[in-house]
Predict the 3D structure of the following.
Amino acid sequence: MAAPMAEATGHEQWSSRLGFLMAAVGSSVGLGNLWRFSAEAGQNGGGAFVLVYLLCVVFIGIPVLMSEYVIGRGSSKASAVQSVQDLAGQSGVSKNWSLLAWIGMIAAFMVVCFYSSVAGWVLAYIPKFFMGAFKGQNPTQIAAQFGDLIDNPKTVLPYFTAFVILTTWLVSRGVNRGIEWASKVLMPVFFLLLAGLAIYSLVSGFGTQVEIDGKTVNASGYALTWLFRPDFSQINLSVATRALGQAFFSIGIGSAIMITYGSYLQHGVNIPKSAAIVALTDTGVALLAGMAIFPIVFSHGLSATSGAGLFFETLPIALANAPGGLVIGTAFFILAIFAAVTSSISLLEVSAAWVIDKTGWSRLRSSWSLGLLMWLVGSVTVFSQKFFGFLDSTAGTLMLPISGLMVVLFVGWRLNKAVLAKELEGTSPIAIMLLMFQVRYVAPLAVSVILVSGILEKYFGISLFG
């Protein structure tokens, strides 16, 4: 089925629906699933945050993700920019709507540059754990090792470089032999590792009694209650905004990735159903990661809300001197690298598809040229945490929400109805009506709230919700 589609569109296609789903899930599942989701939950009401997050994924995340797939497959172009220009022409509206793809593409490249720096930290920790660098050390000494790593960029640079080379090589191999192949190999191993670690963590935690808030509790029981039993009094507009922001961040909306991946998708694959599978699988991974991490954290009386430190400080402290901790700790960081690779290749592919379409260069030349640029920009983030923070805040607070807002406005209000009907073929009329209501009204309002609140809080120190 893939070959005829490749002839019809003039560019590569996923070899199967499974290959597409693996790649799309791999793009969504990243380092953020392994710490950011749980840190946000800990800071915003635990189970209350999880409940609101699930509602955001179902009623906002899935419709927006569907919109990006519609743009990608609805055009005959591989790059996100040219996909939007093509559909704008078909719809009789300004081609300036392609700005949404430009913003998303540039944001994706900015993200992959600093993301690779974080991946360099993860790679550096694999031999550390395997060689027992944390064994016999106290929490202060273990935490200091992470600080020493950040303060010594020359130590990180080789690991960062190795990750950039791996990412670039996989993208240079193409959609089928590179991106799809890597996702098909890495994601099943990732799921098995994560499930195994969750089982280990839960079993160990059920045998551990700890004192939390003056009460003696079972570590795993407390972790599960914390994640899955909502305290409705904790739900407010601030929690809802944080949950919605995490949904966009985790699924990968606004970065033009899913427009690009949608362009490789064969007709006959149901877009709303695929969007639901990807978004819900990504959410399931975040919850499973919480079940793998937090019984260990609570077993040792450690903080659940330490962000990046959760992975690079808290887990080493918890596992360094535990039975089997060397193996489990090494497995955790290998797991993180698998997640990082499948996300980084999708981030770089957005730019690669544009360069190939725009210049006519071969995929090999396009990929390695971008890989060199990625290394040059990313190297600055290795040596400068200030520049790292600039890329992170500019892409996350401004560019991704703006692109996401433009996506739903374009699909909801400007896209040719015939194109929309064709791409949603096979979906029930009631489902289409509900989805389009969310795309036209609910999602734009929600994204606008994220955008405005993020700008006010980040740049003016003003919190809309206290």
